[in-house]
Amino acid sequence: MEHFDSGSDSVSQVELTPLICGLPDDIALFCLARVPRKYHMLLRCVSKRWRDLVCSEEWHSYRQKHKLDETWIYALCRDKFEQVCCYMLDPNLSRRCWKPIQELPPRSLKRKGIGFEVLGKKLYLLGGCGWSEDATNEVYCYDTSRNTWSDVAPLSTARCYFACEVLDEKIYAIGGLGSNSSNPNSWDTYDPCTDNWKSHSDPNIVPEIEDSIVMDGKIYIRCGTSAVTSHVYAVVYEPSSGTWQHADADMVSGWRGPAVVVDGTLYVLDQSSGTRLIMWQKETREWLPVGRLSTLRTRPPCQMVAIGTNIFVVGKGLSTVVIDVGNAGNMGGVMMSSTISKITSDDDVISCKCLAI
Length: 357
Hints:
By secondary structure, the protein is mainly beta. The protein is 11% helix and 38% strand. It starts with 10 loop residues before the first helix and ends with a strand. This is F-box domain-containing protein.
């Protein structure tokens, strides 16, 4: 097994210090990797070798490979002081509650239009702007295993109010508003292996973007509704050609709210009149109702995220409703669901993402 020391000790010292006394390191890893994620912070405190192991890419890969990884939800919010804040939820706990992530990068706290994305075991805050600040290209990275923030390579183009998605282990920052008005139809891709961004352009990308999803290995972005026709406009990225094309009009017609993909099926939360969940049926090419959500449980505007067949609808104050669409029973059209208590404040939810370790 490969050693996980950061390099400050000599190789001979590392080899003489097993992870668990009396066990080969591969057997020790077999045992330690089965410790639930909620105890990983405690594992880091045992020794330097354990800390380096828990914070390593090898640990992350091992847990994923052996299906030991656990998914937590991260929510980017804005509080009553108009400051950015971030919360975390472990959905596996018997008493589930949102917990704040402390010490966000100070320069990002007042910005709006910030991108929020997950890649591997890291969260990324990208771009943004302020009342007296043009769009920025700054990117911050939060290593969830180390509980630390750091700067990474800046965007090729300063952006705010843009789409962020991950495809083929790369982050895509698409469209939005920026200081470089000469090239508004652009997108950037980030490779974490090289810590480098590459810029691209396509005339089919428009600056005004409202939502985005990844489905069937393609990126879909929903643009602003036309004031003249009230039609929803969307484009789709084809990785094989590296170009953006107009998306299927029938599919796009029902995409008028936050969306999430579960087992290849697109679900949309329609918040225009109450709160109801609808799904896109590919075979019949039509939108079908899944059910209505109780107005007593949801606090729009909401965002959505999925873990397995469970959809988490997260509203104001992080009020959270969980729906299992794999077993979506309903009574009188109202879906059966469970709830997670909201926090004491009325923070607005900007975006939600899942991260598995």
